[in-house]
Amino acid sequence: MEIREYIEQREKENLSSFAKLAIKSKGRAIFEPEDPIRTCFMRDRDRVIHSKAFRRLKHKTQVYISPGNDHFRTRLTHTLEVNQIAKTIGKGLRLNEDLIEAIALAHDVGHTPFAHSGEEVLNELMTDGFRHNENSVRVLTEVEQRSEGRGLNLSKEVLDGVLNHRGFDKDINRAETLEGQVVRLSDKVAYVQHDIDDSIRGGILRKCDLPKEPLEILGESHSARITTLVTDAIKHGFHELENSKEPKINLSPKIKKALIDLRTFMFEHIYNGEVCSKERESAMYVIEHLFKYYKKNPERLPLFYQTIAKTEGIERGVADYISGMSDNYCVTIFKELVIPRSFL
Q: InterPro entries under this entry (predicted)?
């Protein structure tokens, strides 16, 4: 028996009947022989970690653009926090942690520089719009390259989880697997809490500004709130697994409302607040300028993106190039195009 087969056998013996077993995967778009050591989901996780798109997350904004402080979250540290929260929930529910990890690590690789500001402006500029979850799938299937060709050729369950990680309070666009649903919930648990933490650290928000009722339910501290949310997700998940033929991953009504209230507060006072709005204007100006410049001058794109522009349209080629940029690289390219070289 190969090591992979031993791991697959342990999955069958130890995981919930609702877990997605690696041996039951729907497979890849292009057939590949099995790895002797790793399951399909383990291979997917490794391919994501070794991708350029994943490495670039360390220099992409989470909320605060170029904060100049190593203690603020980046898109990469957000991804790692989502991964850890999701794996804890998954372990508690006896789901497939390898699948959870592959989805969690990949879910934001299609995010633009300057976070949702970049996404908003590309969505306005592109004829067919731009959504980071769809772009993450595109990065994983078309933009990333291996020796075998374009795309990482990931399992269908991973791509489904990445595509359907957006949304929260509406019961739509759920991932097919419970593992994908765990990542979707963990994304919200992570960013609401760590964005509160960063906002307080940056002096933009005081703890006393937060709405009292959600804190009374979830906890006063960052760690207490995450503990409450993770514990509730596991307990509610157990109830679903035991009492439903088609269980879904969610929070209990009381805890979910408290999280939604905190999230609503953050949108009103931080994400759409004065500080972020000022940063958003500058970031959107930079990306809009680059988009229009490369659309007018496609020959200035790197050769790989020129090929995409010729085969899939100029907007697609330009969007692929810009969305893959880190914040710093985006600003550097903008300076080179706008500021006379003698001043640089």
A: dGTPase, Diverse_Catalytic_Enzymes, dNTPase_2, HD/PDEase_dom, HD_domain, PHydrolase_assoc_dom
Phi, psi of 155 (to 5 degrees): -65, 150
* Rounded Cα–Cα distance for residues 15 and 34 (Å): 21
The amino acid at residue 231 is T
pLDDT of residue 42: 98
Burial 201-210 (b: 16+ CB within 10 A, else e): ebebbeeeeb
Helices (H), the chain: 3-14, 40-49, 52-56, 75-92, 97-106, 115-125, 132-138, 156-163, 178-201, 212-218, 222-243, 253-266, 274-296, 303-312, 314-323, 327-338
Find the distance separating the first CA and the last CA of the chain, reported in whole Å. Answer: 62
Question: Contact, 276 vs 199, CB < 8 A?
Answer: no
pLDDT computed for residue 153 by the predictor = 98
Q: Residue 190 in contact with residue 81, Cβ under 8 Å?
A: yes
Best CA proximity match to 233, nearest among 172, 192, 183: 183
Mean pLDDT of 243-248: 93
For 3-343, give the CATH class: mainly alpha
Handedness of CA 169, 171, 173, 179 (dihedral sign): positive
Q: Tokens 């035991």 map to which residue? A: 242
**SS3 of residue 61 by DSSP:** strand
User: Measuring CA to CA, which residue among 262, 333, 320, 305 is closest to residue 132?
Assistant: 320
DSSP string over 142-174: IISEETTEES---BHHHHHHHHT---SSSS-S-
Residue 37 is classified by DSSP as S
pLDDT in tens, 179-208: 999 999 999 999 999 999 989 988 889 999
Q: Are 161 and 201 in contact (CB under 8 A)?
A: no
- Kindly tell me the burial class for residue 112, based on how many C-beta atoms sit within 10 Å of its own C-beta (0-12, 13-18, 19 or more): buried
Q: Sort 94 into a burial class: Cβ within 10 Å, 0-12 / 13-18 / 19+.
A: middle
